[in-house]
Design a protein that fits this description.
Blueprint lengths: L1 H15 L2 H4 L2 E11 L2 E4 L3 E2 L4 E9 L10 E4 L10 E5 L3 E8 L6 E7 L2 E8 L1 E2 L1 H7 L1 E11 L2 E4 L2 E3 L6 E8 L12 E7 L5 E5 L4 H4 L3 E6 L9 E9 L2 E11 L1 H6 L1 E12 L4 E4 L8 E12 L4 E13 L6 E11 L3 E3 L4 E2 H4 L2 E8 L2 E7 L7 E2 L5 E2 L8 H15 L5
Parallel strand pairs: 3-10, 13-19, 13-23
Antiparallel strand pairs: 1-2, 1-4, 4-7, 5-8, 6-7, 8-9, 11-12, 11-14, 14-17, 15-16, 15-18, 18-19, 20-21, 20-22, 22-25, 22-26, 23-24, 23-27, 27-28, 29-30
């Protein structure tokens, strides 16, 4: 009799009492997929996912804690029983349903007995949509010169110790589908047609993120003259292509120029400043030249030996102050060889920047001479003067003052 009454009470609790007292409440449903050991939550399931797991977190009364009472049903398929049921704090339980990777979006129902608890949507990400959503940002090719890597479009072929290609790969969804090794950097010699395809694997952290920094190095050093290209390829789609050019050293050296000049001044109080013009002698403790060197080749990166000479007044020849290998690009490269003490400055007329004996620029210590006008409107020519960018700026300032009605 007691056994029969117990079974009757269980039936009454489960099927006759109001559902509000017996059915699960407070449900939260999440969909995740697994790829190469990585679990990705609340994202579209890609075509190459290893598995799909539906997690349901429910607050269950004691009478509704039988795993067999729960099913997950999708149209056109058999009901799925939970793979596991795990207790959580606060009377909550976690139900896990595992299903194969779908070929299209799915919408199913989570049921307790025959009662609907929640609708479950499993979004799907086709291969074509994923590849179309990929974006490659700031693809860059760096050239290794000595112990430096410089982003460049043009380089001296004989100086190159290797190329380094970098880029940022981004997508609106995690990059986990690329775990199958879908990223390659293809280095191609456009002159000979030789290609080197370099696989670019992603770490687990990168696969779980929506952005990843990519880096690739070719197996051979491109020392031949001519163009090289770097293409980023994912799943047969070329996302970006960059071209670099190897040129001979003589072409690079012919493109060298001085874009501007300055003086580096150390005052008697110990401060250091950069000036266009030479300050009054009483304010100078030491002074040195500063040349801004650039290449006329677009996107250039190359190393050259620059020398700065002090030009001695009178018949004395120029004196070498410093010679150094300098990395030069198409942007201004600062080259300041050091200081000359104030007592020695009186013996100098200026400084010269040279490369292999060729004078690239001059920085004069002499003030800009003034032309003397006579009564007939003519002028007495000034003495010879080594023109520089600083002198050119001073001329512009004087012309501006004349145009504004000031004195010259």
């Amino acid at each position: 009799m007691r056994h029969w009454i117990t079974r009757w009470l269980d039936w009454a609790m489960n099927d006759l009492l109001p559902l509000a007292r017996t059915r699960p409440r407070g449900q939260a449903v999440h969909v995740r997929y697994e790829k190469a050991g990585l679990a990705v939550y609340d994202a579209p399931v890609p075509w190459n996912a290893d598995a799909v797991v539906v997690e349901a977190l429910l607050r269950l009364p004691p009478s509704a804690r039988r795993k067999t009472d729960f099913t997950l049903r999708f149209p056109g398929g058999p009901p799925l029983a939970p793979e596991a049921m795990r207790p959580e704090p606060d009377d909550r339980h976690r139900l896990l349903f595992r299903l194969p990777t779908p070929a299209a979006p799915l919408t199913g129902e989570l049921l307790w007995k025959h009662h609907l608890l929640a609708r479950v949507a499993v979004p799907f990400l086709p291969s074509a949509d994923f590849l179309a959503s990929l974006e490659l940002r700031v693809p860059t090719v760096g050239v290794r010169l000595n112990d430096q890597v410089v982003a460049a479009q043009t380089f001296v072929a004989t100086q190159c110790r290797g190329l380094v290609a970098t880029a940022v790969l981004a997508a609106p969804t995690p990059l986990a589908p690329l775990a199958d090794g879908g990223v390659r950097a293809v280095f191609r010699n456009e002159r000979t047609g030789t290609e080197h395809a370099v696989p670019v694997p992603l770490t687990t952290t990168q696969l779980g993120a929506k952005e990843a920094v990519l880096t690739a190095l070719p197996p051979k050093v491109p020392r031949r003259l001519g163009p090289w290209s770097v293409s980023w390829v994912v799943g047969g789609r070329t996302l970006a292509r960059r071209l670099v050019q190897g040129i001979p050293a003589r072409q690079f050296e012919a493109s060298l120029r001085v874009s501007d000049t300055r003086f580096v001044v150390a005052d008697r109080a110990g401060g250091v400043q950069v000036a266009r013009q030479v300050p009054p002698p009483a304010e100078v403790a030491r002074l040195g030249p500063c040349f801004l060197v650039a290449s006329g080749e677009a996107g250039m990166a190359g190393v050259c030996k620059l020398a700065v000479y002090a030009v001695v007044a009178g018949d004395g020849g120029p004196t070498l102050l410093r010679e150094q290998d300098v990395l030069v690009t198409d942007g201004p490269t600062l080259f300041a060889p050091g200081f000359v003490d104030a007592p020695e400055l009186a013996k100098l007329t200026g400084f010269e920047l040279r490369h292999k004996g060729r004078v690239l620029g001059v920085l004069s210590l002499s003030p800009v001479p003034r032309a003397t006008l006579n009564a007939e409107g003519g002028f007495k020519p000034p003495p010879d003067f080594a023109w520089s960018s600083a002198a050119d700026e001073e001329l512009n300032e004087r012309l501006q003052r004349l145009m504004n009605g000031g004195g010259g």
